[in-house]
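Q: What structure does this chain adopt?
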Amino acid sequence: MMWLLRRPAAMSMQNALLWGIFWMLGGAILGWYFSVVPTSIVGYTWGSTSLLSQVIYGVVLWVSLALPMYAAALTLNSRVGVIELSGRMLFARMPIYLLMLPAMFGDKIAYSTFMSHPFNTQLSLPYIVLMSVLVVVVIVWYLYWSYVAFSSVVKRSGWSVVVLLGVAMLLSYMLSELLLKWTIYNI
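A:
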């Protein structure tokens, strides 16, 4: 069980990058199929776009996550590799992409409605509660894996890494919203 918790740090840089790209492309396919469009590094809304647009949004999310993380990592360790950090951080996004899988076993419309408007009165209360719990678990899993990936690259741990990761995540969130809005309106 411990290997699963430390997975972003345990795998090689190349495997993390390749699996991260695989999940990004898989997330683009799922987003296209379920008609959900990313609005930030953790947010989605309803929207029908082409598969190519979904792939472009995935790359925009990757860049908007990698840039602040790399800048933050350089403050702790000047020997951080940009490919290693961006690959591990992309792999750490896997839980976010897995969040789309419940729609394969349920109602596609209800899922898309929940992702865009979580407390819509047209959805049943048990569905809202179940999906809300699932979203919280996935976000915690994503944040933990991001911490594991970040700390393994900078080769440090502790509160300084947590605080710096939190600041970088906040900057990534704001940058991703800004870049995605620009991308959506310009492609």
